[in-house]
Amino acid sequence: MGVDSHGLDIGDMLTTVEIEGLGKFLHSMLQKGMKSLEIGTWKGCSAKVIAEQMKQCGGKLICVDDWKGNGNAETLQKAKDEFIYNIFEENMILLGLWDVIETMVMTSEKASSLVEDNSLDFIFLDADHSKDEVMKDIINWMPKLKSDGIFCGHDLDHDSVRAALNEVLPNKYHHLIDRLWFSQKEEVDAGNKRETKEVILCGLEHKEG
């Protein structure tokens, strides 16, 4: 069980380094009324990081999850034993972040059919880690980003995630920090790799994927 500094059962999906890195990354791109979306929320570990930044700019975070587990035995059992959505909601209320959060309690595929294209500034993916599902999520959600939007994700240490990225975003994703990666919509649309081999952003070094 992951317990944060407030004593909340919020999960431990992200390391301390990843939490700090994601927060800085988002802070560097804040704009008034920014609209973000997370695919795979669970108890709210990464949602907390994103929502804190959205609160600073008067933005919004849409959390997409059916809160039934992502297919592996451990999360499926936890979803049966605990009311995960209720834990997530209580966490966000206690953190004072519920007012910037909207939930879509459904599958990622269903939610993607309901969100308008070119409407989001930032997407964070941490859902089913299988190659096919990661590919499907990227293909379904990339069009939802604005032209200058950022698609970010977790679990770069998984072979299945790297395989999906290399197939659907060949040479168009970057290492952010630890297990986090990101891709720029304009770069994907352009269909080619940046000329620079290193990207320096908000004090973090990002290497090409």
Task: Please characterize this protein's 3D structure.
By secondary structure, the protein is α/β, with parallel strands linked by helices. The protein has a single domain (16-208), classed as Rossmann fold. Helix content is 36%, strand content 22%. It has helices at 16-27, 45-56, 73-81, 84-94, 108-112, 131-141, 159-168, 185-190, and strands spanning 35-39, 60-64, 101-104, 120-125, 145-153, 174-177, 180-184, 198-201, 204-208. The chain has a 9-stranded mixed β-sheet, with helices on both faces. The chain is globular.
Count of separate DSSP helical elements? 8
Rg over C-alpha atoms, rounded to the nearest angstrom: 16 Å
**Residues in β-strands, percent:** 15-25%
- Strand elements, count: 9
Span from first to last CA? 31 Å
In the CATH hierarchy, what is the class? Alpha Beta
- CATH level 4 superfamily: Vaccinia Virus protein VP39
CATH 2nd-level architecture: 3-Layer(aba) Sandwich
Taken in chain order, the helices and strands follow as HEHEHHEHEHEHEEHEE
CA-based shape: globular
Alpha-beta content class: alpha/beta
Low-confidence stretches: 192-203, 205-209
